[in-house]
Amino acid sequence: MAKDYYGILGVSRDASADDIKRAYRKLARQYHPDVNPDPVAADKFKDINAAYEVLSDDQKRQIVDLGGDPLAPGGAPGGGPGGAGPFVGFQDIMDAFFGAAAGSRGPRSRTRPGADAILRLELDLTDTAFGVEAPITVDTAVICTTCSGAGTAAGTHLATCEACGGRGEVQSVQRTFLGQVVSSRPCVACQGYGTVIPHPCATCSGDGRVRTRRSLTVKIPAGVEDGMRIRLAQQGEVGPGGGTAGDLYVEIHERPHDVYSRKGDDLHCRVTVPMTAAALGTRLTIRTLDSDEPVDVKPGTQPGATLRLRGRGVPHLRGTGRGDLYVHLDVRTPTKLDAEQERALREFAKARGEEVAELTKQGGFFSRMRDAFNGHG
Q1: Which of 111, 94, 105, 113 is nearest to 168 (CA)?
Q2: Are residue 128 and residue 212 in the same domain, yes or no?
Q3: pLDDT digits (tens, 9 = 90+) for 57-112
Q4: Same domain for 210 and 239?
C-alpha cells in the first residue's frame, strides 16, 4: 500500500509547492534528531524527508496522485534500490533550519554602505521662523584620498586568501546517520572577504576611510520647529572600503526667546498695561519678529484679556501664510499712591457708588472686625 505522503506533511492534495515546503520546514525543525532525541522522532524524520522528496518532485507527485509509490521497490524510477533513497539533500535540510541562503554565502564585499550621522544645531526663533543658511562643522569618516578607498598601499593590490582559496568560507565534513554532512563557516584568515591586504595603506590602515572635520552649509527653511530634522543626502559616514556615504541629519533645537513663546506656528507674549489704561483704553506698539504693529486696547479691558494679531506669527513650513500672534494683557494695579492720587481715586470710587474701606494706622478694615469679635470695639 502506498504511503500517504500528503498526510505525513499535513497538507491537502491541492497544496502548492510553497505550502509543501513550509510544512516540511516546520516538521523538520520539530523532529530533527539534533533537536528531538526521542527514538520515535528519528523514524518520523525519515518519513518527513521522504514525503518532501516525493511531493516536491512533479513526476513523483504525479505517481502518488495516481495511487502509486515512487519510493517503493519496483516503483517509479528513482525509488527503491539504486534510486534516490528516502532522504533529501543536505541543502534542503539547511533550508529548513536556516533558510535558502544557508550554505551559499560566498565571500563578503569589502565595500559596504556607510552609517547615517546626526548633528544638533541650535538656532534663534528668528532663524527658525524665516530660515537661514547656517554653517556647520561635522566630524565623520571620509574616503581615504591616499588609496581612494582601496585600503592598499600604493603599487600593491589585494591578494587571494590562501586559507579559503578566495571563497570567504571554509568547509568541514562530518559523518551522521544521514551520511556525510558538509558545513561552512567564515574564513578566519580573511574574515570572510576571500582576499587579504598584504600591504595596507599607511593612512587608513586598510579601512579605505579616515576621520576628519569638515565644514558645510545647511539651508534651514522658514517655519521649521524644535526637534525637526533636515536630511543632507550622502553627507554622513563613508562606508568601509570607500562605500557609499550615509546621510547626515541636522536636528533643530530652538533657543528660548526673551519675549515670545511658540506653539506650532503661533506666537504668544505677555504685555503689562496700567489699570487706568485698561479702564480708559489706549494704543500699544507691539514689536513683532519683523515689524512694529499698533494694537488698540479697548476701554474696560479686563485682566487676562488676549489680543490677536493675524498673520504676525511664524511662516508655515508647508504652504503659504503665517500663524498668529497672541498678546496676553496683564493689568497692573498701583501699589503706592500719594495723598492726591488716593483722594482722586476715592472720589472716583464714590462717583461710581463703590464703598471703599478706609485704612488707619491702628489697622485696616479686617483689624477692626477682629477687634469687634474680640469685644474690643
Answers
A1: 105
A2: yes
A3: 888 888 888 777 887 765 443 333 333 333 344 444 444 444 434 444 568 888 99
A4: yes
194 CB-near residues (< 8 Å, 6+ apart): 106, 107, 108, 160, 161, 164, 166, 167, 168, 187
Burial 250-263 (b: 16+ CB within 10 A, else e): bebebeeeeebebe
Query: Is residue 21 one of the residues assigned to a domain?
Result: yes
Q: Which of 306, 308, 311 lies closest to 265, judged by CA?
A: 311
- State the cell numbers at 364: 485696616
- Is residue 199 very low, low, confident or very high in pLDDT (cuts 50, 70, 90)? very high
Alpha carbons 91 and 101: distance in angstroms, whole number: 10
Residue 132: which CATH number?
2.60.260.20
> CA-based diameter of the chain, in Å?
129
The verdict on 212 and 322 lying in the same domain is no
State which residues form the domain around 353. 339-373
* Domain match, 121 and 25 both: no
CB 323 within 8 A of CB 265: yes
Measure the CA–CA gap between 317 and 313, rounded to whole angstroms. 12
